Give the backbone structure.
Amino acid sequence: MNKKMLKISAINEGTVIDHISTINTFKVAEFLNLKEGEDVVTVGMNFESKKLGKKGVIKIGGRFLTKNEVNKIALIAPEANINIIKDYGVKEKFKVEIPDVIKGIIKCANTNCITNKESVRTKFYVLCKDPLKLRCHYCERVVGKEEIGLV
Amino acid sequence: MTFENRDIISIRDLSKNEILHVLKTAKKIERKPNPNLLKGEVMASLFFEPSTRTRLSFESAMRRLGGEVIGFAEPGTTSLKKGETLWDTIKMAERYADVIVMRHPVEGAARLAAEAAGVPIINGGDGANQHPTQTLLDLYTIQKAKGKIERLKIGFLGDLKYGRTVHSLAIALSHFNTALYFISPEALKMPDSYLEELDSKGIQYYEETDLLKVSKKLDILYATRIQKERFPDPLEYKKYAGVYKLNRSILPHIKPSLKIMHPLPRVDEIHPELDDTKHALYFEQAGNGVPVRQALLSLVLGRVK
């Protein structure tokens, strides 16, 4: 039984996203488009966590996230930790961090913004990280987390 | 501080010193006009959305300083109708002109144009977002009428939710030690994001629905039109249109020195019977568009420092 559990949960190399608050777990899984790939993926929820009460964990075998993907996770689940796994061991561990300027990840919530009319890479300035508040470089609209759509 | 080849897109791009420098330059040009200052320069006036005051005052500003003007007053006459992108239109226009003045119905259009163009772009209004030259002429008008901007009590009246002139002017005034009074119906209040910005700069402001409760304190009253085009529901518009109508009945409730401003066009916010009182400043305000725009054109073209 123990051996079988280990097979499901441990990965040889890849990424473990830990300390995701339970409500954000599926959002992160969805945005990483995990169901499309061929990587072995484990999505777990409601694990006990001292910090969060309940937490979610996502393990992705054979895939290392790009900086852009990590930035996006920071926007969806700023509480998350990223663990890089190699040879069944944690080679690197870091907390996701919202950058000061976000380029190309977020869609502007203002439908009359030029970025929604012409082919323009979006750019946002982070005014506040918690609660998240961003200002669009183009239309200058200030948006909160609930209004953010990912590109 | 240098303005040469700079874009004027948002009032947020200008520091207090830079704002004051524009006002000082406008004053100098107004006092001693030089009809050859911009000789040989060409301004492209690209109005993707109709405008009366902004377009005419920019064109007048350029011509009175000896410059030339090319452009269009509505997009119907351009290749935009054929589906040309803004980027391509600007890439074309920058080859024909030394400076581009543009108004566009889409927010952020001027910022994008500035990224496309090698020549300076001056934003003459991008949708509901920014209209920095209006803000500068508003500040110039206040300074000219009152001899100062600091320590004034400035009231904003009407549609504070959608009025971009109000938003920009409030942000610009946050550089100065002023007290701001936002007077509007509950549904057309100043948006929270602007109030938070004022909070973060420690600016003193008050929100009020009843003009008469604060009118006696004010040095400047900046009235705005309730903009019909901003309301999705005409019934909703009707509810608020004409909520604040200034006429002679306001006179006992204001300081003798109060000045009334309005970005124009007005509908019925200010009765013409106030036009010949010492309080009316709105036509002078519209006139101030010329020296302020002359200053901006001369600065970004590097003809004055």
